[in-house]
Design goal:
Elements (H helix, E strand, L loop, with lengths): L1 H19 L4 H11 L10 H26 L4 H21 L5 H20 L15 E6 L5 E6 L1 H18 L4 H10 L5 H25 L5 H22 L4 H25 L1
Antiparallel strand pairs: 1-2
Helix pairs in contact: 1-2, 1-3, 1-9, 2-3, 3-8, 3-9, 4-6, 4-8, 5-7, 5-10, 6-7, 7-8
C-alpha cells in the first residue's frame, strides 16, 4: 500500500512539475511531510523528505529534458549560464538544511511565493525591465504558432538570481523551478514554454549536486525513492505532452494557481510548526 501511495504521488508531482517547470519537489516534499503524520510513515523527517525528493527529481529532470529536446524549446545557453549560480547555491542550501528551522523559513518562503503569484496576476500590466542589448544577452524564440518572442538578461544578474534559487532548492528540495520559472517570465521575459523547458534542464544537474550532498548526510530514504522514481518518469512525460499542447496563457494560469496553493500550504506549516 505504501508503494502505491508513493507511486501516485510521484506521477502527480512529476506531471505537474514538468508541465510548468517546478520539478515536482514542491509537491513531493509537502506530501512526504504529510505522510509523516500517518502511522507507518512517522520516521520521515524534513531532511529525509528534502533529500528523497531531490534524488527523485534527477529522474524527473532527465525524462523532461529528453522530451523537451525533441520539441526544441530548451534554451541551453541561458540554462548553462544560470547553472553557474544555481549549482553552488544548491550545494550550500543542502548543507544549511541540517541546522535550519524549516518551520520559520516555510512561513517566509510561503509569503514570498504568494507575492510571486500576485505579480503573475498583474503580469500583463507590467512593462518589461529594460536591458541594454550591448551589455547583455539577447535571445529570440519562435513558437509552434509562428509567434516570435525576444528576451534578454545580464549574465551577472542571471548568476546572482540563480544562486539564490539554487540555495532555496537545496534547502527545500523543490528543484528551484517554483522560483526560476516566475523569475524567467517576469524579470527576463522568457516565453512561458521556454522558461518551463529551460528550468527543467537546470533542475537535472542542480538536483544531482544537491542529492550528492544529501546522500552524504544520510538524508535519502532509498526504499521511498525507488517507489517515487517510476512515478516521476511516467509523470514527466505526461507533463511534457500537456505542455506542448497548451497555450502560454494557460501555463501561466496554472502556475498562478499552483503557487497560491503551495504558498498557503507553506505558510500554514510555518505557523502551525
Amino acid at each position: 500500500m505504501e508503494w502505491i501511495i508513493l507511486l501516485i504521488i510521484g506521477i502527480c508531482a512529476s506531471s505537474l512539475g514538468s508541465l510548468i517547470g517546478l520539478g515536482g519537489g514542491i509537491i513531493v516534499v509537502p506530501a512526504l511531510l504529510y505522510l509523516a503524520t500517518i502511522n507507518g510513515f512517522a520516521h520521515i523527517t524534513p531532511q529525509v523528505a528534502v533529500g528523497t525528493s531531490l534524488f527523485t527529481m534527477i529522474f524527473t529532470g532527465l525524462s523532461s529534458v529528453l522530451a523537451y529536446t525533441k520539441h526544441k524549446v530548451v534554451d541551453y545557453k541561458s540554462g548553462l549560464i544560470f547553472l553557474i549560480g544555481s549549482g553552488p547555491g544548491s550545494i550550500l542550501g543542502a548543507w544549511v538544511t541540517e541546522s535550519m528551522n524549516l518551520h520559520a523559513f516555510n512561513l517566509y518562503f510561503g509569503l514570498f511565493i504568494i507575492l510571486v503569484s500576485i505579480i503573475l496576476f498583474v503580469k500583463d500590466k507590467l512593462k518589461p525591465i529594460p536591458y541594454r542589448k550591448d551589455r547583455g544577452i539577447t535571445r529570440t524564440f519562435t513558437d509552434n504558432r509562428g509567434k516570435t518572442f525576444e528576451y534578454g538578461y545580464s549574465p551577472v544578474v542571471a548568476v546572482i538570481v540563480s544562486f539564490v534559487v539554487g540555495f532555496l532548492s537545496g534547502i527545500f528540495g523543490v528543484g528551484g523551478g517554483s522560483l526560476m520559472v516566475p523569475t524567467m517570465i517576469l524579470i527576463f521575459f522568457f516565453p512561458p514554454h521556454v522558461a518551463t523547458a529551460t528550468s527543467m534542464f537546470m533542475i537535472l544537474p542542480t538536483s544531482i549536486l544537491s542529492s550528492i550532498t544529501h546522500i552524504s548526510l544520510g538524508n535519502v530514504n532509498w526504499l521511498y525513492a525507488l517507489a517515487l522514481v517510476p512515478g516521476a518518469y511516467i509523470g514527466a512525460n505526461i507533463g511534457v505532452f500537456l505542455n506542448t499542447r497548451l497555450k502560454s496563457k494557460t501555463i501561466v494560469w496554472i502556475l498562478r494557481t499552483v503557487l497560491v496553493i503551495v504558498g498557503i500550504r507553506l505558510i500554514y506549516e510555518g505557523i502551525t510548526g
